[in-house]
Amino acid sequence: MTLTVTLPPPRLDVAASDALVAHDLSKRYRPDGRLVVDRVSLRVRRGDWLAIMGPSGCGKSTLLQMLGGLTTPTSGTVRVAGTSLGDCSESRRARVRRRHVGYVFQRYNLIDELRVVDDVSLPLRLNGVPGRRARAEATQLLERLGLAHRVNARPGELSGGEQQRAAIARALVARPDVVLADEPTGALDSAAAHRVIDLLRNASVQGQTIVMVTHDASVAAAAHDVVHMVDGALQAVQ
Hints:
alpha/beta, 27% strand, six-stranded mixed sheet, Rossmann fold
């Protein structure tokens, strides 16, 4: 059964516009043709926070990658901030991602050669923000995540939890319309996880849309809505 999820209007006083829309999104992997995501439809409005839960291998991360334009769907469409990703060239799709999407990767994807503050400030620099201002904003966000003492470190000098927080800061620093977070608290202790949840909550308050994959029911409980995914399909909404 295919389930279409339409979330209610935002809880706060923000424009009731669709930030992220997916229609009949499917993904098959070659050469075996295995169906990983099965006709998923989502409509998430500005300022809403959606958590996607489900067992390992059910298609959650693949769905998130398609929503962010990192993986091309086998069929179906994705619209981010009013732009249909399927109608874009690769260069145009990259510009849409850079301007409108913040992505928290499960493996962090920090740049080894950069200091943490320079890595986190990179999205701002790519959007034309001067270096000093970009680094100041990145530093402020890192401080909120308890990483004030690590701003000049390299990724290899950080613990797994510190790398995860730095990756979250990088995803949020440019205040993208949509934040896609793949297990954003997976490597964190409870205190650090609370910092991250508070930061995501504040982003939602400011009108950013959050779509988060998590195995942790207590983390999912912070979201406005929870979707359960099994075998590539949406099964229930709570």
